[in-house]
Amino acid sequence: MTKSIVCLQPLSSQQQERIRAAAPGYTLTLANAKAPDLQLLAEAEIIIGWAKGIGETLLRPESPLRWVQTWSAGIEKLPLERFKERGILLTNASGVHAEPISAVIFGFILMFTRNLHTAMRNQLNRRWHSDGQESELTGKTAVIAGTGAIGSETARIAKAFRMKTLGISRSGQPVADFDQVMTTAELDKAVSQGDFIINTLPITDETEQLFDANIFSAFKQGSYYINIGRGATTNTEALIAALNSGQLRGAGLDVFETEPLPEDHPLWNMEQVIITPHSAGTTDYYAERVVDIFTDSLEAYLDSGTPSRNLVDYARQY
Hints:
The protein is an alpha/beta fold. The protein has helices at 13-22, 38-41, 55-58, 80-86, 98-113, 116-124, 149-160, 187-191, 213-218, 236-245, 286-304; strands at residues 3-7, 26-30, 46-48, 67-69, 89-91, 141-145, 164-169, 180-183, 196-199, 223-227, 248-253, 273-275. Helices cover 32% and strands 16% of the residues. This is 2-hydroxyacid dehydrogenase. Belongs to the D-isomer specific 2-hydroxyacid dehydrogenase family.
């Protein structure tokens, strides 16, 4: 019986050929995530992507499904417990976003540092004005929560601006381009040193509401908060309170507890806040990078039965 790979995302003909070349003996079929063919999925050993309404078909006892490669870095919306019970291998798209998201992070940082967000608002009103508060990044400290692919790329770029870099991770282990890495338990001490606090964290039981009123109260007065990780890692009311009190001078936000952000939400009217619509990871290189990750892992899977890149630890939820 021919083994089957089904991809629920569009791929170019060249990308399809790369997968077929890496998996002799397998068929590759593209499916529509919005109207998936359940009969086709029922025969798949490997799924690329995921969609609503396919779980009951793919997770039945007799399903041949062995491996799911997600199209995103986040996995919180997947039926993780059922995957774990079935022994299904799960790999995510971590690493795909490092370049576009780090560019957005520095877009926020540079806008705040040079008051470009204010200049854009002034332009709309044809107002020629500067309050003389423009600064620069040399000697500033970036505290980066999460030292994975996005955090590491952000730290590398920060070094080009002669910034100091302080990382936060579960282990506190040293990582290239970070002057120091502290543990999550030391988050309050770390944020007190930062001019820019950058949240790149996934959502897990440990990170949910991690940035709360206690943590914001530990921020350096007049610092900036940037969140491109997950909205639920941050208590929005505590964030707004910190912005209103001046504890935070500004915030660059790509993710929110509720998405889309409601039209009547107070964050929209805060001039010290820059909002993007959860688009920081969007890039025209996205599919190519997912295929890179998948084909690398596919070689290891065919050789040993286990993908080599981005294998999710169900206990850690990433």
